[in-house]
Amino acid sequence: MNTSHSNRRSVRQPFLITLALFALVACDSSIGDDLSGSELSDQSALLGLTHPDANFQLGALTRLDRDWDERFAPAVVEYITLTRSSALQSEALDLLRRKTGQNFGFDINGWFAWIWQQDFAPPAHYAEFKSRLYRRIDDRFAEYFDDDRETRIRLDEVRWGGVLQDGIPPLRGPDMIPAAEADYLDDDNVVFGIEVNGDVRAYPKRILAWHEMFVDDVGGVPVVGVYCTLCGSMILYDATVDGVEHAMGTSGFLYRSNKLM
Q1: pTM: predicted TM-score of the whole model, two decimal places
Q2: Are 99 and 92 in contact (CB under 8 A)?
Q3: How far apart are CA 250 and CA 237, in angstroms?
């Protein structure tokens, strides 16, 4: 990094905090009790998979077996990834094997790779299924999925990344220092440089690797920079759309391995 330009500024190196990440579907009977047997029969057995009672879930799998639709496959795979009951996992896997003719075992990526090759339209209440399922990890996830919301991407391609909302905390309004003072950087360190209205800044890759995105005001413009840890690139977004400034964060979900804000 060339530090000879005093008008350039770099991010002050923050303290790094190691986060313990976990995946867990809690057996909290207060969640999902609003789903009654009559609602299951009137709507979709998919919703029964989100009920906290194991017997209710088993009944839902039986109902899916009886009324199988190939479009149920993505939901059943998602259910397998989150249930903590090995018996229910086995029942669900057996259902998938018999109904799809495929056998990927517990290779979830294998199941999804096959599913995404199929021309699946979402079944009724699939978005609500995802809302009920993932809110048992984080209540805030419930807002992400809605049967009445228009979508432009396939919801079965939206997968949980294993963290809570903002579980990978964005770098918000970082302290900036003159480039010449960024002595924690070596000349061969990669930085992402941006310039907005004459305001020039550098965001080191070694810092963004911990945060995956930054939210800042550069040159009087609210911006969001999203760093892809898989391909090593960054995309800069204007956070204001149609006159509305959006407060962006990490959703915890991925679309085709891409971070969803």
Answers
A1: 0.79
A2: no
A3: 14
